[in-house]
Amino acid sequence: MGSKPLFIGNIRLHKRVFLAPLAGITDFPFRQTARMFGAELTFTEMISANGIVFGNQKTLAMLKTVWKEKPLAVQIFGSDPELMAEAAVVCKDFGASIIDINMGCPQKKIVKTGAGAALMKRTKIATAIVKKVVKKVSVPVSCKIRLGWDHNTINVVEFSKRMEDAGASMITIHGRTRAQMFSGSARWDMIQKVKASLSIPVIANGDISSVKEARRCLQISGADGVMIGRAAIGKPWLIDMVSKGLEMEDNKTDLEIPPLHRVVTYHLDKIQEFYNEKIQVQTARKHLAWYSKGMKNSSAFRNQIFRTDDIDTLKALAKDFFTPENEERNIAKQAKK
Ligand SMILES: Cc1cc2nc3c(=O)[nH]c(=O)nc-3n(C[C@H](O)[C@H](O)[C@H](O)COP(=O)(O)O)c2cc1C
């Protein structure tokens, strides 16, 4: 790995492990928590370009804290090049460090509009989007893609090259096709061909949940860095942990996990500061359930939190549950993985 900095356009990064965009999860409080516990580059969840341009209040609310985070990649989705460029300008004005274009979302409701992974079948439109966005904003533009639409139409190498030629400053590849959704295993080996053909940074993504896997993925793919999604749910410190692990000597993976009560308290405070009461409770319950996964008495804890309707009671329940004794068992369990 070494400690050579990684450049996304003119943005200099010191760490090579990024927090993936996860709709409904990587909101401002979650990203803040990941940053507090060491993450450097985070991505917003995907944000509708239409919603931004037409001033949808809920969509714009997702952007209001962007200026507080540096470096932050704001991910947008859509299929109209003009509209995507207009949306990118708004994101940049809100303070985005990087504009990331979603070209990998497999969901029906997204691909039927020609956005997300459908763009991998529409190279001309995808190219026009990148060109227009790059022309309109001064910040770097990146793309997050898959291997292709399905196993008969894998086009990740040619497609990535086209995006680079159109002006993209980084490509992140989730090593599955759209047809696979989340099934099978991510093909890190197929990312290697992209890395060999491009001069911009290539980031590998899919199925990484430990230092060991990140190291293996980098060896196989030759990528410049990795992005972690699902494994960071309930473990926002994982981004930093993997990043530190990669800088250490080979095969050393026994890294310190921050005390869970500190992570949970910080995250709940951020949720309380950011959302209105109703959303605070919904969001806090969801994350508390993830944090407690696999811990002793966690199902009784979850029953309690899902019957609780105010944030202060949730905080008190969390304080009682995430005790050093309960945490110790959890850490011992994770260390065995
Ligand atoms: C619940 C969920 C929401 C996601 N939302 C987004 C999104 O908004 N934008 C995006 O590009 N990818 C999204 N993804 C895909 C992830 O960023 C990532 O590419 C994928 O989960 C594979 O990486 P992993 O194995 O580390 O999770 C989402 C995945 C999940 C499970």
Description of the molecule:
The chain folds into two domains: 6-247, Alpha-Beta Barrel (TIM Barrel); 260-336, Orthogonal Bundle (Non-ribosomal Peptide Synthetase Peptidyl Carrier Protein, Chain A). The two termini are 23 Å apart. It is built from 15 helices and eleven strands. The chain is globular, with a radius of gyration of 20 Å. The strands form two sheets. Strands 3, 4, 5, 6, 7, 8, 9, 10 and 11 form a nine-stranded parallel β-sheet that branches. A two-stranded antiparallel ribbon has the order 1-2. Helix content is 46%, strand content 13%. By secondary structure, it is α/β, with parallel strands linked by helices. Bound molecules: flavin mononucleotide (FMN).
Produce the secondary structure layout.
Blueprint: E1 6-8, E2 11-13, E3 17-19, H1 28-36, E4 42-43, E5 47-48, H2 49-53, H3 57-61, E6 72-77, H4 81-94, E7 98-103, H5 108-111, H6 123-136, E8 141-145, H7 156-166, E9 170-174, H8 188-197, E10 202-205, H9 211-221, E11 225-228, H10 238-247, H11 260-274, H12 277-292, H13 298-305, H14 311-321, H15 324-336
The structure holds flavin mononucleotide.
Flavin mononucleotide binds at residues 20-23, 25, 45-46, 75, 102, 104-105, 144, 174, 205-208, 228-231.
